[in-house]
Amino acid sequence: MGLNHVYLPKRLDLIFILFLQFLNGGGGSPKDRVALNMINMAEEQGLLTPHSGDVIYEGTVGSTGISLATLCRAKGYLAHICMPSDQATEKSSLLLKLGAIVDRVPPASIIDPNHFVNRARTLATQHTTSPTRPGRGFFADQFEADANWRAHFTGTGPEIYTQCSGHLDAFVAGAGTGGTIAGVARFLKRKLPGVKIVLADPEGSGLFNRVKYGVMYSETEREGTRRRQQVDSIVEGIGINRVTKNFEAGRELVEEAYRVSDAEAVGMARWLVERDGVFVGSSSAVNCVAAVRLARDMGPGHRIVTILCDSGTRHLSKFWARAGEVGGETDMKLDDVIGKAR
Predict the structure, then answer these.
(1) 163-175 confidence digits (pLDDT tens)
(2) At 84, which helix (H) or strand (E)?
């Protein structure tokens, strides 16, 4: 859990620091520390007992489920993961190889009982109340559980501060559950009151307007007519159209937000491979676009940190299928990437 790396692209004329969380062990994403904290806190509260038949249920678009499945095998539990059927298939394939039970369910509104999060909650309750099933069902509840943001408050935030020797001017991150940006913000603001916390938000997500105007609203959908649980974007893992307890835990500390288009995210992902050989997933690309925009707005001489959440290997069938083949664009400029949305 402690394998974290700071990477500084040599060709950027900006002080732009990438925190490579996809090089973590275990599940290979920042969700490793969240999953471990959720399990540890549940064990401390007597809600989980190793090797007793207890099953951990969770609704996730991928990374949290992969981290949970990895840790469950190591700690004596079974993972039962519910995820939307429109997510990249390699995620569910990996979950199955990790020994998890996987339910791919049709996308639905959060008010629908068949929404992937609601289904996981229901299955956990049914397990616990079943007179014939061994063990209990535990619903991890990553969107609402305090264990999520607290994992970043005690882990990610201090690591960023330490590895930057306390010298940073801004932190940029996307939000799905909101745990990363909230937990890191709460830690960094205690140490560095002047540090700027910035949201990177994909197309169709309502969090941009939540930060900028205090209203959860996306231009791609009208209030009261929402039909999907996920934003209309090829980006997976960040972006949401409802308020979560984890995001609200740090919302007042988020001072700025940038909306990033699919075209910009794809362009940035290709640029990182072409120029520096860094192969990332869609949410990481969104973070980098927002970080570059912020760097330009702030001007030279500032240190800006963002997170690379997971590898592009989890996004081959969807995001990278849209991005296409890489190679030959050695003269690709950052202006071309950021300008794709203008």
Answers:
(1) 999 999 999 999 9
(2) strand 78-84
Beta bridge partners of 173: 199
Q: How far apart are CA 282 and CA 267, in angstroms?
A: 10
3-state SS, residue 160: helix
In DSSP terms, which residues pair with 137 in a beta bridge?
A: 55
Q: At what angle do helices 63-75 and 89-97 cross, to 10 degrees?
A: 0
pLDDT per residue as tens digits for the range 65-79:
999 999 999 999 999
Buried b (16+ CB within 10 A) or exposed e, 60-75: bbbbbbbbbbbbbeee
Per-residue burial over 168-182, b if 16 or more Cβ lie within 10 Å, else e, is bbbbbbbbbbbbbbb
Q: Which of 10, 31, 75, 333 is catalytic?
A: 31
Asked about 245 being catalytic, the answer comes back as: no
> Please, what sign has the CA dihedral across residues 314, 318, 324, 329?
negative
Structure token pair of residue 158: 């201090």
Return the SS3 of 282.
Answer: helix
Predicted pLDDT of residue 329: 65
Helices (H), the chain: 31-44, 63-75, 89-97, 116-129, 146-151, 157-163, 179-191, 207-213, 245-248, 262-276, 282-298, 319-323, 334-338
Report CA-CA distances (Å) from 47 to 16, 82, 124, 127, 306. Answer: 42, 20, 12, 13, 34
